[in-house]
Amino acid sequence: MDLSSPIICLLLHSLVFVSLFYCNNSLETRNPLVNQTFQSEDELLKLKETIAIRLKKLNKPAVKTIQSPDGDIIDCVLTHQQPAFDHPLLKGQKPMDPPEMPKGNNRINNFSESIQLWSLSGESCPNGTIPIRRITEQDLLRANSDSRFGKKLPVGSNDRQYALQFVEDGEFYGAQATMNVWNPQGESKSVFSLAQMWVHPNFYGDRRTRFFIYWTADAYQHGCYNLKCPGFVQTNKAIALGAAISPVSTYNGNQFEISLFVWKDVKTGNWWLRYGDKDLGYWPSSLFTNLKNAAARVHWGGEIFNEQYEQASSTQMGSGHFPEEGYKKASYFNHIYVIDSKRVWVQPPKLKNYADSPNCYNVKGGVDSSWGTYFYYGGPGKNKNCP
Ligand SMILES: *[C@@H]1O[C@H](CO)[C@@H](O)[C@H](O)[C@H]1NC(C)=O
Ligand SMILES: *[C@@H]1O[C@H](CO)[C@@H](O)[C@H](O)[C@H]1NC(C)=O
Ligand SMILES: *[C@@H]1O[C@H](CO)[C@@H](O)[C@H](O)[C@H]1NC(C)=O
Fold first, then answer.
1. pTM of the full predicted structure?
2. Which of 29, 34, 191, 192 to mutate to test the pocket of ligand 1 (most atoms within 8 A of CB)?
3. CA distance readout (Å), 67 to 20, 30, 208, 246, 332
4. From the CA of 185, how far away is ligand 1's center (Å)?
5. Of 88, 142, 376, 387, which sees the most CB atoms within 10 A?
6. Mind listing the pLDDT tens digit for each residue in 197-217?
7. Residue ranges of domains in the chain
């Protein structure tokens, strides 16, 4: 099972990722419990008990519960009871109001925005609450070890491939881009184990496109997805992190886009995240001393995880088509901006391309009057030039 995601990544001393997450698990109906080898019934019972305790701690009490058509359960949790406020430094606090984002070249796309499945029917969380995707027993079992749940594999392993653009050696106080949303197809696997599930943190167990955030304060040693550990304070009641996104773009058909912004509020030092015109929340500077600085480097692009170390993966990145195919066929980022040291949005100077294996996944950029700074990225993975 492989995984593909477009990312916007700000490299401080720490990392903040904002990603759309596409995953593939051909064995989604399999109950991981059934084929696990346990020493004894006792061991299984003990594991289930541990998981029940962990779930109780992870899932906060809901004032309303919404059943999403994709099977997810969305809990509307009082804003001051969200996981971030479990942190000793934030205990007793309430979420801040969103500050005003620096004005400038930032522009919201005029496509209809992709939305989340759980709210399609018109269901919503009440004022004073935020939607949190409920973590299930299955999620924890898939994550193998519950103590590692929500954390990501260290970088630097050769099972990842990137096709991206980046700027480095700068002083950046924000980054934004608009991207079209796809649901790439992944490789099927006949072998499945919980340990491999951990190597590829596919804790959702399906192949929908999801919106998630990930951060780490120490270069991937410890980090978290979404609200799974204290670190991100969500302020928005319309978007559930980790929930599925719909609709997605189709080849030669309608293109669906989202715009993402990550930027620093200089007054508080908090880094805020915006999705379209919605402020989602922030990483508090009191928890991340490194976030007090500017970002030195920003990445935009695609990433895939491949569990076959020896040969190319047939997991698609983005639409699964190469940049040369262009609009409606390849995936793209456009309206790429950074906030510079003068605290204004500018098109990034000296954008560089990076692709691990251009014959498998590539990137190709440009600048024009309607899209500003943009690039196409992605590819099919395994093909005759990428054996
Ligand atoms: C266990 O896995 C094997 C293949 O490894 C499969 O044929 C069998 O159906 C599985 N058993 C259950 C109960 O899922
Ligand atoms: C976006 O808006 C501009 C100006 O109104 C228009 O020319 C363009 O066709 C629109 N693009 C899309 C994809 O709707
Ligand atoms: C919820 O908040 C919005 C925005 O502040 C307000 O317009 C709306 O009336 C509130 N709804 C309820 C039920 O209080």
1. 0.81
2. 34
3. 22, 22, 16, 16, 32
4. 24
5. 376
6. 222 334 455 666 777 777 665
7. 16-378
